[in-house]
Description:
- 32% of the residues lie in helices and 29% in strands.
- By secondary structure, the chain is an alpha/beta fold.
Amino acid sequence: MTSTIVEARGLTKRFGSIEAVRGVDLSIGAGELFGLIGHNGAGKSTLFKMLLGLLAPSEGSIQLEGQPIAGPGFREIRRRIGYLPENVVLYDNLTGLETLAFFADLKGVARHACAPLLERVGLAQAGGRRVREYSKGMRQRLGFAQALLGQPRLLFLDEPTTGLDPGAIRDFYQILRELTAQGVTMVLTSHILAEIQERVDRLAIMEQGRIRATGTVAELRNGMNLPLTLEIAGGAGLRGRVESLLADLGPESITETAGLLRVRLPRSAKLAALGRLATLGDALGDLHVREPSLEDVFFGYRS
């Protein structure tokens, strides 16, 4: 049975008359890569800061690894937490290696761990350069390296791929896969939904300070019962035959672009539609079933 690493109950945070987080319940298991998505101002960063113990909740409780964040055991837990904020602030006059050494001293980590971490995030050749010479992506990778100091067992990553190019994003998620294999628990936020939909184990959709839904991408997709799209390629006259075969299955639309038919229909009609289309034989050149994207799911829950 998976142990619970992050447990929040009835979590609320008010700033004067503004309720930034409203009655959030959240459980995250050991070794999970958990995504938290929502529009700007949804309360994600405020929730992060409460989970880190940087902000005191107005109401509710938080436990990390079974320890309340206000309890005497939390000090030791914090040593096993890494955090990459959305906006990384670094000292421009320090080199990359000096920056990591500074954070290592703060965390009580031996300095000899710094150079290998720079190499791990792809900054080995830039370790001797001043941070003021770093690009935004390089600063982000340096921020990620400081979050990894001390081999944390729990990582909070707020918009971690901001400024990274596609190759760096690929390398970043490769590191996350290695960490999850080692049992590290991670919570990350991202505005790039297509980037995380195949990478997170579970996720929560947050809106106006509340958790609207939690589950795997497939569970959230099924919960919305959004239509799927069949992309069909074939020869001349295919459209008429497809329309005839699927007419009573309630297709929402059938469009054609450059010889490719796109049929939107209810999820409940999927198997029946595939069975009927199979009768087209050689007239069917290709068929692709396109499930609703995480972006579709997100906007479905917001509507």
